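Internal tracking record. Fields below are filled automatically when a chain is submitted to the structure queue. Please do not edit lines marked as system-generated. If the sequence contains nonstandard residues, flag them in the REMARKS field before resubmitting.
Queue: standard
Priority: normal
Entity type: single polypeptide chain
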Amino acid sequence: MLIEAKKHQSAEMFSAQNVNCKALHECIFYYFRERENKRLINTSIKFLIITDFYQFYIFKASEFDRLFYKNTHFKKLYKNFTDKNSLFKGNTEKFYNECKKILDSPEYLESIQEKKKDSQGKSQSCSLQGFHLDFKALFDKINSNDFKAIRPFFKALSPEFLFDTFNPNDANSLNKDFYNELLYILGLEECKQNDKIIIAQSKESKAGQNTIYTAILQSLKDKEKFKAKSDDEKFESLMQLIILWLNRILFLKLIEASLVKFNNNKSLKFLNTHKVPNFRILSGLFFEILAKNSHERDAKHLEKLFYLPYLNSSLFEKQEIENNLLDISELNDMNLPYFKATQIKDKNAKKKQGQVKLLDYLFEFLDSFDFGSDEEESELIEQKTLISSSILGLVFEKLNGYKEGSFYTPSFITNYMCKQSLQQVVIQKFNTAKNWDCKDLQSLKLRLDKLTDSPDGYKEANKIFDSIKVCDPSVGSGHFLVSMLNNMIELKFHLKILCDENFERLKDIQLRLENDEIVLQDS
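SYSTEM-GENERATED OUTPUT FOLLOWS
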């Protein structure tokens, strides 16, 4: 990235009304110098920025490559500039003056007009393409507390954008900062065994530091059922409990984010030590609040949590291992030092140090990330990293494969696999059920258009479609099944047979898949 900075209100500053200016000439010179450096040719430049710190003009390097670096007029100019025998004698001011002349010349305009199409035959603009950020407008938005409007500025100046490291094909890349600190709190670590990456007890847990692994071990060590197990069986039991409890807590973090977002009320947050001060209350949250309808709740010590909805899910039923071995309420809330690379910041935005209670640490750690809450002031100023449900799926894929190692298929590959296999299965299903001879989706769509003209046509079409069964024997995190379900819904929409519960077609919507999620738009 190359940046040319000017004083505010400088006559040399770039603008839409002052394109042929010194700031642009300097950027052209810097770009040539980087590309023509004989010692170290720089071909990794992504963007060039011209700014006076109020206005930012951002250009792709490919624009400078197209309009200047590959242009014969500018190539000749730079060659003359670097020639020791030329009249330039290394004088950059003369170079800038010549740039101005070239940009004003009809010959230059004619030379770029001759190359209106690229190597693929696509039309190219003769003008310099870029985008403009007006920070004066940004300051007005800050003063009016319009924090959502600031989001594009954060994105445009983020390292992922400016260094072109963002991968649009896969929203599920593992966040190492999140994963490594989570493993530390759990008392686990990745290690290599027989060319496989497995998960084992961490060195901190082995040293007796008060991780969740250690807390579970301390609570189990005197229980006869646990003492009778082999070392491998003991580790299996600990991992079962860790995965079970973490599954619940992370699911609740997503629920919490949704509650806050849709009600626009941060007081609805509940994964904190104000509302859940210890592991006994956390157990009550699982089994006395979320597993019961509101009229069935009678635990007075849990009144602060009565506003939470009943979650009709087996996830909040007590499992056999909890009944027979250990309930989370039995854990001691001991102190654990902050991770050396903790993502938790103090009020001065510095990494926290010292020790903290285990449960408080876990809640504080989760709260240092964005689990999908609205894009408000806190998320923007604190620069919280988004942790999506897809990324959580990747975390559980790794934890569930703690013995054998795991491989998480990127979402764009999974989506492609699902789409290709599903289309063939659906065509075959309808051909068999209706004795049709459809070869592709278009011919199937025409057949379905006629079928749905008849009474109960939508019902029959959905009955045939819904008879498709998908099995993933090595289910892991469920990523493949979720992707398949999303593709089934999208395909129903494409075939115009997506209906409500009364088999009335859903017409006034737009539907697409994006990052393992279904995006619906009311038209």
